[in-house]
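Attaching the record inline, Q. Sequence:
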Amino acid sequence: MFKSSDYVVQSVNLLGSDTIEMLTQIICQRVFILPKQQQLKKNGQILEHSKTLSKSNLKNGDIIFVDILPLCKITINTGKGHKPVTVEVLPNDTISEVKDHLQKESGLSMYNRCLIHEGAVLEEHKSVDDYNIKDGSILFLFQRPPELVALTFQRTSGEVSELKFNPRDPDSVQSTIQNIIKDENESASKSHVYECKQF
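Structure, as predicted:
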């Protein structure tokens, strides 16, 4: 049986091998609470969605309480030329999931971008709740500076040269190789690369 905050008690038939996640799906079908908004508890203990009923020590006749996690609307300023975007998130959403919501709503690529709240760069594995982000909070999306790699090589003349490029940007890599070929007037395979360091 499960019981939500409005005191509706409903009975559910499940097997011990079924997961808590399956239970959240059934609850969603019956009372229209999204699975990710459900926090299921037995005797005050939060039940992990990935565990089975038997591993969660649930038995026939146990009562499960359903807490409804509130959705909060946050605004994300995405920079010049773009309108702020409002997304709905849960307290237990990770910052990575927030960026996924933002990408779906805005169409902007999240490649090499970070979110900032109250002056702090948000780590992707941490949750909305970890950063005390509430309904009405404002976040900022920033482009991280690209990581550069210095490619040191020896020219056929014996001179040592260094070129810097962004290894995640195919155009930058191709341009760097073409510059080496142009300067040497020979194939890149004849250039001897002996050191590669990251900044």
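Residues 149-198 form a domain with the Ubiquitin-like (UB roll) fold (CATH 3.10.20). The first strand starts at residue 2 and ends at 4.

More tomorrow.
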